[in-house]
Design brief:
Elements (H helix, E strand, L loop, with lengths): L7 H15 L4 E6 L8 H6 L5 E7 L1 E2 L23 H10 L3 E8 L3 E2 L4 H15 L16 E6 L7 H14 L5 E4 L11 H4 L6 E5 L12 H12 L5 E7 L12 H12 L5 E7 L1 H7 L1 H5 L4
Parallel strand pairs: 1-2, 1-10, 2-4, 3-5, 4-6, 6-7, 7-8, 8-9, 9-10
Helix pairs in contact: 4-5
């Protein structure tokens, strides 16, 4: 039986649908600040590879503690030596790169004891890194775009309060506060799950590494089962979190060629697909991983 030719309107519709299914262009997020020898913040953004740069970490805060920034050998915040980062932060933002501060991490002293404690931490973050004012801004007077929750210690309570307070402060101060989170791939996340469920998070970069049961090496089925569970969360964009080299994590490294040909095609069609998050800039400098995947993300 001969097939009928498509009408012009049908042809336009077909092309439009094809574009929708193939143009889920994503971005790359990268953590910066925890390793000696990595590129500067300004150099990181000048590479053109990243949509988000996440400054890591604020590993001490809450429960009455004096908050502390730790940027390894990049600078010493205790002596005021990190205020010079403002110039680099602004250089990144002029390039369209969003710069976030990551609170928490896998090694630190942090936690929230009550909704009031969450409010105090939110005020500290607002006044010292975001749109508020303080005489002791550790990174200088540049205004960061938002806060990343990398909660791996300190209990699971009151992070939802902190998220609400940060968004509220942004609305009151006339500035959008971007919120992101870095949960582990087993669903739901033990620490970040309650906060993410508020629906206030713009980006969630799920750590599909150091979790053998759900990372890609566990098999396509286990990986996709975890990804689909994360698709259910009320967040704006979902990123695949990966180590940028074998040395960057215990397990979960995916060679760039395999990521491009076997992994990304599985998830790029997701309506929440946002791209790839890498740990970290130091390891990416060693391998060139972001450059190898950028055109496929």
């Amino acid at each position: 039986m001969a097939s009928r030719a498509l009408t012009p309107m049908q042809l336009i519709g077909t092309v439009f649908v094809a574009l929708l299914t193939t143009c889920h262009a994503g971005g790359i997020a990268v953590y910066w600040g925890q390793n000696d020898g990595e590129a500067s913040l300004a150099e990181t953004c000048a590479s053109g590879n990243y949509e988000f740069v996440i400054i890591a970490f604020l590993p001490k805060f809450g429960k009455g503690q004096t908050p502390r920034v730790d940027l390894a050998s990049h600078c010493d915040p205790a002596s005021g030596g990190c205020t010079g980062q403002s110039k680099d932060i602004r250089a990144c933002q002029r390039r369209g790169v969003k710069v976030l501060l990551s609170i928490g991490g896998g090694d630190g002293s942090y936690g929230l004891s009550s909704p009031g404690d969450a409010r105090q931490v939110a005020m500290y973050l607002w006044n010292n890194f975001l749109g508020g004012s303080s005489s002791s801004r550790p990174l200088g007077d540049a205004v960061l775009d938002g806060i990343d929750f990398d909660i791996e210690l300190g209990g699971a309570k009151f992070w939802d309060d902190l998220a609400r307070d940060l968004k509220s402060l942004g609305r009151s101060g006339g500035r959008r506060v971007v919120l992101s989170a870095a949960p582990q791939c087993p669903f739901p996340d033990e620490w970040d799950g309650g906060a993410i469920s508020t629906g206030l998070f713009d980006a969630v970069w799920v750590q599909f590494y150091n979790n053998p049961e759900c990372q890609f090496s566990a098999g396509r089925g286990a990986f996709m089962d975890a990804w689909r569970k994360w698709e259910s969360v009320p967040a704006g964009r979902l990123f695949l979190g990966l180590p940028a080299s074998k040395d960057a994590a215990g397990t979960g490294f995916v060679p760039a060629g395999e990521l491009n040909s076997r992994v990304l095609p599985l998830i790029r069609g997701s309506p929440k697909y946002g791209g790839v998050m890498l740990w970290s800039k130091y390891y990416d400098d060693q391998t060139g991983y972001s450059s190898a995947i950028k055109s496929h993300v």
